[in-house]
Each structure stands twice: as C-alpha cells, then as structure tokens.
Amino acid sequence: MKVLSVVGARPNFMKIAPVxxxxxxxxxxxxxxxxxxxxxxxxxxxxxxxxxxxxxxxVYLDVHSGSHAxxxxxxxxxxxxxxxxxxxxxxxxxxxVNSTLACGLVAAKLHVPLAHVEAGLRxxxxxxxxxxxxxxxxxxxxxxxxxxxxGIQHLKAEGVPDERVHFVGNVMIDTLLRFRDQAARxxxxxxxxxxxxxxxxxxxxxxSNVDIPEHLEAVVKALELVAQDHPVVFPVHPRTRKYxxxxxxxxxxxxxxxxxxxxxxxxVEFVHLMEGAGLVMTDSGGVQEETTVLGVPCxxxxxxxxxxxxxxxGTNELIERDPQxxxxxxxxxMTAPRSNPVxxxxxxxxxxxxxxxxxxxxx
Length: 363
Description:
Elements: E1 2-7, H1 10-26, E2 30-35, H2 42-52, E3 59-60, H3 68-86, E4 90-94, H4 98-109, E5 114-119, H5 129-140, E6 143-146, H6 149-157, E7 165-167, H7 171-184, H8 188-191, E8 200-202, H9 207-210, H10 213-226, E9 232-235, H11 238-247, H12 249-255, E10 259-262, H13 267-276, E11 279-282, H14 285-294, E12 298-300, H15 309-312, E13 316-318, H16 323-335, H17 351-360
Parallel strand pairs: 1-2, 1-4, 2-3, 4-5, 5-6, 6-7, 8-9, 8-11, 9-10, 11-12, 12-13
Helix pairs in contact: 1-2, 1-7, 1-17, 3-4, 4-5, 7-13, 10-16
C-alpha cells in the first residue's frame, strides 16, 4: 500500500512526523512524504525535518509564497503531476494550510482516497482562510481523523457519515510528548538569562493580527506594556517581521530592553521556551494545544478558537486585541497559582498509532 503524506507549513511537520513513523512500524505500507515548499527557508522548514527525524522529502514541489489563489493553484498543478506518477492508494493531508486544501482537491478530482488529520475543527469565522481550508477539505475527505469531541459534533452536524469519522486523539501531542525531555536539555533560556516562569513567550502570525496596521499596532502596544513587568520573548515569524518593519513597530520592539526578538527557532527550542514561560501569548492553534498539555497559561489573541477543548480542559483563554486588557490579564495570570492540567481525551501520545492501524485496515 502506497501512502503519500503532504506537508507544507511547519505545523504540518510536527503532525506528520509521528504518523509517518507509525505507518512504517505497522508494516506493509510504503509511506512517502511530499513537501509542497509552502514554508521553504531553513528556519521554517529544514531544521524541523532534522529535529523531528523526518527523512528528506521523497518529493519536493518547490512552491513558495504568493497570494492564496497563486499558492493554491501552483500546489495543485505540481501535486497533480506527482499523483499521476506515484499512483498512491491513499493521500494524507494535515491541518488547515493552503497546501492541505490544494492537495485534497487534487486527490478528490483524481479519485484517490483522501484522509484528513485534524478534521472537524471549526472557529465559525469564515474570514479566516484556515476555516475555509478546513471546511472544504473535510467535505471532500473519505477518512476524517478527529482530535477532540467538538470535531465529531461539527462533522455530524454537517452530515458526514459516522463511518468516515475516527476519533483518534492529537498527533501534535504525540510529537510534544516524544521531544519534551530533549527540550528540557536545551540551553536557550540560559543564553538569554531567562528564569523559569518569569517571562512571557509570544507568537503572532495570523493575518487578522499582523496584516492590518492598526491591529498590529495594538499588538505592539500590548507587548510594550507587558514588558514593563516581565521579559517578553518573541520568535518573529518572517511575515510578522515584514509588517513590523513596514509599520515601524520592529524598531520600537528592538529598542525595548525587556523585549527579546528572535529569529524563528527549532521545534525543540520552542518547546523549551514554552515550558519555561510564565505565560504564552499567541494566535496559533497548535500552541493552544501544547500549552494545555504543558500546563502553561495561554492567552490567545483571537475572538474565536477552533480548539475549544483547550479552553474547557486546558489553560487557554481568548482575549480581544486590546493593549490594556491584555496587560491586565497577563499580570493576573502570571501571579495566579497554577492548577494541574486536565488532559483532553486521547491526548496520550498514541494518536498516530491509531491512525496507522486504521490506514493498514484499508489495504
């Protein structure tokens, strides 16, 4: 049985790594990785392959950045040729990036069975391109692997037959638990003289927060206020850095003595920073999940989340893009006693093995 697993942006790498390994272990499956090149530079792509133990991609499409339509179209044209050449029995896509949708559409049009890992998540905000990618991919998928109960409920409401839906748990957590001990041995916090629990870790990259100048200005003001009380550690996504530079926010943050701007870091280093933080401020979906498992307080600067279990079970809290409100809430949560995290069902490090067993049963 030949399986093509598609990765494009770096959250995909953490999700497909345990799935690829589990497919190899189950036997009888030729697991091949296709990298679309949506994230293509060394810091956003290559280092993750090395750290996660992924092989060099079997196929590299070399599709770089562009508008949503340009990127999706180029991935579809390149991936179609790959599917013709490879003749896979199953295509696996993960997450909600443009590569997920593009390769899913190719699979559906060429009548190759399609599996979607992380299916059923919904923010109910169609202004988010990720929401459209999720909804369309789920509609055309034959096998839907779900991370949390809300996903089952959404797919049922959308009329997806029960036999297509599989509640398997969260493959992102498989990777987190596998590399947690290695991350603890990193020296990155010491390099910046950061004490455990003393700093705020920031990730910010979604268009709603960084592409609109007044929204990005609110984020910059919030970081300046937070840095009055606590060190702020900010590995800056390339898109975010570009917009910060255009609006003048980059210089302001660089001049602040308590704000440490970094280039994007590897997965192991990021987990190290995340577990040592007193609080994480983010707009990332995966970070909401990881902080839930690590028991680290999380403020998500978004009005909605497609991962409600991180709020119901975990340490996540949604907050508006208001500098004063963010500052006040960071103060409160940094000083509040931590409670033990409540692990969502099946977030036990075995999700990829459940997927592999289901895939093996399809042959």
